[in-house]
Design brief:
This is Protein-glutamate methylesterase/protein-glutamine glutaminase. With 345 residues, this protein is of the alpha/beta class. Helices cover 35% and strands 22% of the residues. The chain folds into 2 domains: 3-128, Rossmann fold, CATH 3.40.50.2300; 139-341, 3-Layer(aba) Sandwich (Rossmann fold), CATH 3.40.50.180. The chain is built from 12 helices and 15 strands. The strands form 3 sheets. A 7-stranded parallel sheet has the order 8-10-7-6-13-14-15, with helices on both faces. A 5-stranded parallel sheet has the order 2-1-3-4-5, with helices on both faces. The longest helix has 13 residues, at 11-23.
C-alpha cells in the first residue's frame, strides 16, 4: 500500500485530503501543519509520497521541498491555489525537486473536493512511483550549436510529457536554437490554472516565443504553443509554414485532457512538412498512438530513456509500438531533435 504524508496548515484541508486518500487505499501515515514539521515527519516516516501545501507558517512548502530533497529525497506532489502567485510558487517548488502539481479545489471546498477525488488519488499514486534520484538536465550545460548548422525548412516538433515533465520540457526547449526556426507544440499534462504560467516560464527561459494556446491560434517559425489545461489541442490547418490549432473539450483520452495523442494524430493528418514527435517522462500510455501516427506519416520519433525519466511510462509505451527512432537521455533530446531537422552536409 502507498504510504503518504499530508502537509497543510489547515486542519480542515488535512482532514479532507486524508479522508480522500484513505478512501483510495492510500495509507496516510502522518500529517504536518507546516514545512518544518513536514521535514521532521518525512525523515521519521520515510513515506512513499508527500502532498505539500505552498503557503504555510514557520516554513513554507517551497523551503520544505528543498530541505526534504536534500535530506530525505521523497516524491512530492504540490497542492496549490488557483492563483497566479500560487502557480509561480508551485513552479519554484518544482525547480527544487517537487514532481508534480494539482490545483486545490476553490470556493466551497467541502462540496467540490469529491469532484477532485479521483484526480487526487490517481495523481498521488503516480507521483509515488517517481524516481527522485533523477535530476533534470542543467540548461547551462547544453551543447552549443555550431554556427554553420543549417536546418530543413518548416519543421514542426511536438513534445509530450506528464509526471516529472516540466523541468525536462524546459531543458529540451532551451536546447533548441532560434536559428532552427522550428514550430513547437507542447502538451504537458497539467491543471488548467498552471499552463499559462508554464508557458510564460518557457518564454522567459528559452529562445522561443512561447504562449498558452488559444482557440484559432497560429504559429510560425521560432514560436511555440503550450496546450491549455482541460482542452485538447488539435492541429486544424497548415499552410505556408504556419500551423493553426483548435481547442476542444472532447472526451478525455487516457483519463487526461489535453492528450498528447490528439495533438500528434491531428498533426500527422494535417502537416505536410518535416515532423518530429518527442515523448518524455510520465505515467500512462498517452503519446504511443500519436508517435505511431507520426511515424506512419513519415515523421521522426524520439523517446526519453528510462534512466533519466522520473516515471518511465509514456516513453515505454511509445517504444513498445516499434515506432520510436531514437531513445535518448534527457540531456541529449534537444540534440536528437536537431539531428532530425539538420540538412545533410
Amino acid at each position: 500500500m502507498t504510504r503518504a504524508v499530508v502537509v497543510d496548515d489547515s486542519h480542515f484541508m488535512r482532514t479532507v485530503i486524508t479522508d480522500v486518500l484513505e478512501s483510495g487505499d492510500i495509507d496516510v501515515v502522518a500529517q504536518a501543519t507546516n514545512g518544518r514539521e513536514a521535514v521532521e515527519v518525512v525523515a521519521e516516516q520515510e513515506p512513499d509520497v508527500v502532498t505539500m501545501d505552498v503557503e504555510m507558517p514557520t516554513m513554507n512548502g517551497i523551503e520544505a521541498v528543498e530541505e526534504i530533497m536534500e535530506t530525505t529525497p521523497t516524491p512530492i506532489l504540490m497542492l496549490s491555489a488557483h492563483t497566479e502567485d500560487g502557480a509561480e510558487a508551485t513552479f519554484d517548488a518544482i525547480d527544487r525537486g517537487a514532481i508534480d502539481v494539482l490545483a486545490k479545489p476553490g470556493g466551497e471546498v467541502s462540496t467540490r473536493i469529491s469532484a477532485h477525488r479521483d484526480d487526487l488519488i490517481e495523481k498521488v499514486r503516480s507521483v509515488a512511483r517517481a524516481d527522485v534520484t533523477v535530476s533534470a538536465p542543467d540548461n547551462s550545460t547544453a551543447t552549443p550549436v555550431e554556427p554553420d548548422d543549417t536546418y530543413v525548412e518548416n519543421a514542426t516538433i511536438i513534445i509530450g510529457a506528464s509526471t516529472g515533465g516540466p523541468r525536462v520540457v524546459e531543458s529540451v526547449l532551451a536546447g533548441l536554437p532560434r536559428s532552427a526556426q522550428l514550430r513547437v507544440l507542447i502538451v504537458q499534462h497539467m491543471p488548467d490554472s498552471f499552463t499559462a504560467r508554464f508557458a510564460k516560464r518557457l518564454d522567459d527561459r528559452t529562445e522561443y516565443d512561447v504562449k498558452e494556446a488559444s482557440d484559432g491560434d497560429r504559429i510560425g517559425a521560432g514560436q511555440a504553443l503550450v496546450a491549455r489545461g482541460d482542452y485538447h489541442m488539435e492541429v486544424s490547418n497548415y499552410a505556408k509554414g504556419r500551423i493553426r490549432v483548435r481547442l476542444t473539450q472532447n472526451e478525455v483520452r487516457h483519463g487526461v485532457r489535453p492528450a498528447i495523442d490528439v495533438t500528434m494524430e491531428t498533426a500527422a493528418e494535417t502537416i505536410t512538412d518535416p515532423l518530429t514527435a518527442v515523448v518524455l517522462t510520465g505515467m500512462g500510455a498517452d503519446g504511443a498512438v500519436g508517435v505511431e501516427a507520426i511515424k506512419n506519416a513519415g515523421g521522426r520519433t524520439i523517446a526519453q530513456n528510462e534512466a533519466t525519466c522520473s516515471v518511465f511510462g509514456i516513453p515505454a509505451r511509445a517504444i513498445e509500438t516499434g515506432c520510436v527512432d531514437d531513445v535518448l537521455p534527457a540531456d541529449e533530446v534537444a540534440q536528437g531533435i536537431l539531428s532530425t531537422v539538420r540538412k545533410p552536409t
